[in-house]
């Protein structure tokens, strides 16, 4: 096992991950050669070993994944279609070698050349002109190597990256008792690779390999900026002032000290708001900046997400630029105001985000992988973030089974006022407690935190997804204490405390604190929880009587549109979806459910959940595919609408809902409200409507009366006029004016319980702008055609 702390220190000294630091990049993206072969008993780790095996060679593209190169070469069928993904199983035991030749850049005496990999998936040895220059064992972080001395003065250089099988290499590690039998694959436990790769209920098993982010040479002056960190220390909203810190760390020869200066500046809208020069007398220093007339960064709805251009420039004694770092920052404070446990009876329990001193209501979504083949992520991120903007989400939770998104994602969230809750990349299992694994996580966390910490949209680090909860699944008859977990209780908080102390940290989601554990680990004790449960009727007691103040996962199944089904299935598998002889799902529908292996219907039962939900609301499952789609999407849309309106209607006792999820990362049948092809389901339109900053809705009856509720998630008072009518009869049930205070809620009126079944139309004018909503009343089952007829008459949504 490598000494990961030594490697991390060496990386720091050559400037790995210099966030926003400008260097002369020479791209090594584009055409490479790829050779591959079954991994021998003794893995190949050197170019000499490559000569001892028989391999295939094809052209490759970097950034890329090996499957995409094989697809282009005609060696495999498109894994996104039908059950083709299972044909990739045999390649899990392969090794891969990427090879690139290129000419040497010109280097000045005071310059160094570093080779930078944005992402290597996953276990690799890197050879440069026949010299071993380093190893990689973590998919999630950048890797950099000083190759100055290894470069050829003339002629071409040869770069080789030899990747081993993550599945085979996993056998080298002993697993603990709790690691076996959890939700996540046991193969993933010790390997720092995206957990979803091994199969999840939202992603296929696709254990890929590749150089999945950019590869480049960077020409760096021996005197250069390693890191800059911008922090908001304190603010005064009324006076529009702020105190901010900027910490700068350099690599600088001793003889350059006292002869180098740093120019620090802040600009907004092209106008300089602060500039100063500092003589460099040490390799690290802090400047404290007092700002006047500050434009603060606010989440969506609560104000403008104001950004400043921040720059640090190193200059030599003649004023020449040596190195520079630039980024955009937002001036804001953030707190997670939470209690260790929940007790609704005594009104004790909180889980709420506070930005700039303002308690927020969170309307958010979960973010899952953009693609199973992550080299395609960069091309997908803009459209996916735009979906969140359109749905008016003010938070996105980056789920722990994923990779860490790159700067582009966070830049877009910065610009659009979307707060980011970032899980560390662990989920649904018990991770090793040994020193070697702890060192790996410390290296990873340090790299990720220092890379992303200047983004104002990032408001929370969370230790993992459901690892505390997973201990309850592992040994059913035991209640294992998650507070003894070394990774989430010691390693990660220590990194945050040292590297990013102004940002909150949550050990796990949901978090089973010592008080929760001592109280029996009951769901009611959790201030923040994931609400999945039996997934029956969306108004079952499981949902309506949940005690959590904040829900960070909740969802409901919904079929994609027919156009998407026709893309993801082979022609004959689209319809009928059931085998009429035995009444079972056809094989491709089981694959897309999602199951990791063809003979293991681990998650095929999710289709049964979906049909059961349709039966509950509409009495039966339509035999016609188009009507099945309509019924499934209607159930999902009404459920998701109900969840958001319930949580918003209980404001301020409830403080947020992060639903599952904005978009699929693969063509599947799922809880997402937009599919892999960005085709929106009905639920997307419902959610967009009920996530307006100010909106009016009807909650379910309490003591025989329906609360007509107005909520305001802005910092300004709002006024309006509302008219409630019955869609079928046109009868007016209520008409009146209302006022709802800033960041508040008001019950406008209480409406009598309606008899039978039907739909109410809520028409408003809020501060001069029209707003319309609906409420489905009555007990199921409803008639599917009647439902869509009534919905169509509201003219709120685009009805297919």
Automatic annotation (TrEMBL):
Gene3D superfamilies: Galactose-binding domain-like, Glycosidases, Immunoglobulins. Residues 223-332 form the Glycoside hydrolase family 2 immunoglobulin-like beta-sandwich domain. This is beta-mannosidase. Residues 54-213 form the Beta-mannosidase-like galactose-binding domain. SUPFAM superfamilies: (Trans)glycosidases, beta-Galactosidase/glucuronidase domain, Galactose-binding domain-like. The lineage of its organism: Bacteria, Pseudomonadati, Bacteroidota, Sphingobacteriia, Sphingobacteriales. Pfam families: Glyco_hydro_2, Glyco_hydro_2_C, Glyco_hydro_2_N2. Belongs to the glycosyl hydrolase 2 family. Its EC number is 3.2.1.25. Residues 1-23 form the signal peptide. The keyword Glycoprotein does not apply. Residues 352-504 form the Glycoside hydrolase family 2 catalytic domain. Keywords: Glycosidase, Hydrolase, Signal. It catalyses: Hydrolysis of terminal, non-reducing beta-D-mannose residues in beta-D-mannosides.
């Amino acid at each position: 096992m490598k000494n990961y702390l030594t490697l991390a220190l060496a990386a720091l000294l050559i400037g790995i991950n210099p966030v926003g630091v400008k260097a002369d990049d020479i791209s090594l993206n584009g055409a490479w050669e790829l050779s591959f072969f079954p991994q021998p008993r003794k893995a190949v780790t050197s170019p000499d070993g490559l000569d001892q095996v028989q391999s295939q060679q094809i052209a490759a593209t970097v950034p890329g994944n090996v499957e995409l190169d094989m697809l282009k070469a005609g060696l495999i069928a498109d894994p996104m279609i039908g059950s083709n993904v299972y044909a990739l199983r045999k390649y899990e035991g392969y090794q891969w070698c990427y090879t690139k030749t290129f000419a040497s850049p010109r280097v000045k005496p005071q310059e160094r050349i570093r080779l930078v990999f944005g992402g290597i998936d996953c276990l690799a040895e890197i050879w440069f002109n026949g010299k071993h220059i380093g190893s990689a064992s973590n998919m999630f972080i950048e890797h950099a190597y000083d190759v100055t001395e290894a470069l050829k003065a003339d002629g071409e250089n040869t770069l080789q990256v030899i990747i081993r099988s993550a599945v085979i290499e996993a056998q080298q590690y002993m697993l603990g008792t709790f690691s076996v039998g959890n939700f996540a694959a046991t193969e993933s436990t010790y390997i720092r690779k995206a957990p979803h790769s091994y199969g999840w209920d939202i992603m296929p098993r696709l254990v890929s390999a590749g150089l999945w982010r950019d590869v480049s040479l960077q020409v760096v002056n021996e005197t250069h900026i390693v890191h800059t960190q911008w922090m908001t220390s304190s603010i005064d909203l009324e006076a529009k002032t702020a105190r901010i810190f900027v910490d700068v760390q350099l690599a600088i020869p001793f003889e350059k000290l006292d002869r180098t200066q740093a120019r620090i500046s802040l600009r907004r809208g092209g106008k300089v708001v602060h500039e100063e020069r500092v003589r460099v007398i040490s390799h690290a220093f802090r400047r404290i900046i007092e700002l006047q007339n500050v434009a603060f960064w606010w989440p969506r709805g609560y104000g403008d997400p104001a950004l400043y251009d921040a720059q640090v420039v190193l200059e030599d004694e003649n004023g020449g630029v040596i190195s520079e770092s630039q980024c955009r920052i937002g001036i804001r404070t953030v707190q997670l105001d939470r209690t260790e446990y929940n007790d609704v009876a005594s009104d004790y329990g909180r889980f709420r985000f506070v930005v700039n001193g303002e308690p927020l209501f969170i309307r958010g979504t979960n973010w899952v992988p953009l693609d199973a083949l992550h080299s395609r992520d960069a091309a997908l991120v803009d459209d996916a973030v735009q979906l969140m903007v359109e749905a008016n989400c003010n938070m996105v939770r980056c789920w722990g089974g994923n990779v860490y998104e790159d700067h582009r994602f966070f830049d877009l969230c910065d610009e659009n006022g979307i707060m980011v809750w970032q899980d560390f990349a662990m989920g649904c299992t018990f991770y090793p407690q040994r020193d070697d694994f702890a060192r790996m996580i410390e290296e990873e966390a340090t790299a990720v935190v220092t890379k992303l910490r200047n983004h104002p949209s990032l408001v929370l680090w969370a230790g993992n997804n459901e690892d505390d909860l997973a201990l309850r699944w592992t040994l059913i008859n035991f209640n294992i204490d998650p507070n003894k977990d070394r990774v989430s209780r010691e390693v990660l908080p220590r990194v945050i405390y040292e590297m990013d102390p102004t940002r909150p940290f949550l050990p796990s989601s949901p978090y089973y604190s010592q008080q929760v554990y001592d109280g029996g680990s009951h769901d009611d004790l959790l201030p923040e929880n994931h609400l999945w449960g039996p997934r029956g009727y969306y108004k079952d007691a499981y949902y309506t009587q949940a005690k959590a103040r904040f829900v960070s996962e909740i969802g409901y199944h919904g079929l994609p549109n027919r156009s998407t089904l026709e893309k993801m299935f082979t022609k004959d598998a689209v319809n009928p979806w059931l085998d009429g002889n035995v009444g079972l799902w056809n094989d491709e529908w089981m694959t897309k459910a999602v199951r990791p292996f063809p003979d293991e219907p681990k998650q095929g039962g999710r289709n049964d959940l979906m049909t059961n939900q349709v039966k509950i609301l509409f009495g039966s499952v339509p035999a016609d595919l188009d009507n099945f789609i309509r019924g499934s999407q209607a159930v999902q849309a009404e459920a998701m609408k109900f969840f958001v309106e319930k949580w918003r209607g209980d404001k301020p006792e409830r403080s947020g809902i992060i639903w599952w999820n904005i978009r699929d990362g693969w063509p599947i049948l799922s809880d997402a409200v937009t599919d892999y092809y960005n085709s929106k389901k009905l639920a997307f339109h419902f959610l967009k409507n009920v996530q307006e900053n100010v909106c009016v809705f009807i909650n379910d009856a309490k003591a025989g009366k329906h609360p007509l509720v107005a909520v305001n998630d802005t910092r300004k008072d709002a006024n309006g006029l509302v008219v409630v009518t019955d869609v079928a009869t046109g009868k007016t049930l209520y008409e009146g004016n209302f006022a709802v205070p800033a960041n508040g809620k008001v019950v406008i009126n209480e409406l009598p319980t309606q008899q039978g079944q039907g739909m109410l139309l809520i028409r408003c004018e809020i501060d001069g702008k029209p707003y319309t909503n609906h409420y489905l009343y009555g007990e199921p089952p409803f008639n599917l055609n009647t439902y869509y007829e009534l919905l169509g008459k509201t003219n709120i949504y685009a009805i297919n």
